[in-house]
C-alpha cells in the first residue's frame, strides 16, 4: 500500500486520503461535524479525529476508510488537540472550552482518565521526547500547562506570549516551542526550569509549531500573513545557539495544519481558505506544488506504509 496524506476538511465534514506523490485523492470519509485534528496509531491502522463542533472523537480504519468507532462525553466541549503517547499505548486529547484532558487506550478506545487543566481554553497538546510530560497550550490564560504523564499531575503553568496555540518540542534538546497568535512571537521554554529562554518574531497569527523529523527545523504556519515561518533550531545569534526564523515561505490563504514526510524532504501545509495543500521543499524552502482538497482543510497527518 502507498503512503497517504490524511487531510481534515472542516466545512465538508470529511477526511481526504491524498497520494503525497501525485496529489490524487484516493478516498474520502464522512465524519461528524467539523473535524479539526488528527493523529495516527503507532501501527498505522487507525486515525483518531477530533470533530470539534460535533463534540465527538471518530476512529477511522485506514485500510477500509470507514469510521469504526465514535466516542462522545458530557465534558466534550470543542474537543481539539490530540497526541499519541506510544510508550504507554495512550491517546491524549484536550477539549478547548471545558479545558479537560482525556486519556484513552489506543487499542480499545476505552477512556482511562480525565482531569482539568484549570486554565482557559486548553487547545493543543504535545509530549516531551521521552513521553514523561505532556504540554498544553492555553489560549485564554497565556500559558502552558505541564503535566507529569505517569502521575497525571500538573507540574507547572509557565507563562508565554499572548494567545498561545501551536506547540512543538525539539527532539534533541527538549526545548518547548510555542506560537503565540496575538503577539506574533515564538516563545521558547527551557524543559528543566520551564522558564522562557528565548523569543523570536514570526508572521501574523502563528497557529502551529511542527518539528522536522531530525529536529533541525520548526515550521510555523502564519494564518493571516499566508506564509510559513522556518525556524532553525540550531541557529547561532550573538554567539548563542537559539531557535530563530531564517525564512518565510508564501503558501495559500489561511495556512493551518502542517506535517513533514518521514525523511523530512517535504512538508505539507493545509490552506484553509484556498481549499488546497501546499507542498514545500525543505532544502530550498519553496512551495513546489499544490494539491486540491475539499472545503476548509486544516488538520493533517502523514500515513507511512
Describe the fold and architecture.
- Helix content is 0%, strand content 55%.
- It has 305 residues and is mainly β.
- It has one domain: Methylamine Dehydrogenase, Chain H, CATH 2.130.10.10.
- The protein is globular.
- The mean pLDDT is 97.
Descriptive key words:
single chain, about 300 residues, mainly beta, Methylamine Dehydrogenase, Chain H, 4-stranded antiparallel sheet, about 55% strand
The CATH superfamily appears as YVTN repeat-like/Quinoprotein amine dehydrogenase
Oligomer: single chain
Please state the overall shape, judged from the principal axes of the Cα atoms. Answer: globular
Q: Which stretches of 5+ consecutive residues score pLDDT under 50? A: none
Distance between the termini: 6 Å
Number of domains: 1
Tell how many strands the DSSP assignment holds.
30
Q: Give the C-alpha Rg.
A: 18 Å
Q: What's a concise summary of this model?
A:
The chain is built from no helices and 30 strands.
Provide the fold topology.
Elements: E1 4-9, E2 14-18, E3 25-30, E4 35-40, E5 46-51, E6 56-61, E7 66-71, E8 79-85, E9 90-95, E10 100-105, E11 111-116, E12 122-127, E13 133-138, E14 143-148, E15 153-156, E16 164-169, E17 176-180, E18 185-189, E19 196-201, E20 210-211, E21 217-222, E22 227-232, E23 236-237, E24 240-241, E25 244-250, E26 255-260, E27 266-271, E28 276-281, E29 286-292, E30 297-303
Antiparallel strand pairs: 1-2, 1-30, 2-3, 4-5, 5-6, 6-7, 8-9, 9-10, 10-11, 12-13, 13-14, 14-15, 16-17, 17-18, 18-19, 20-21, 21-22, 22-25, 23-24, 26-27, 27-28, 28-29
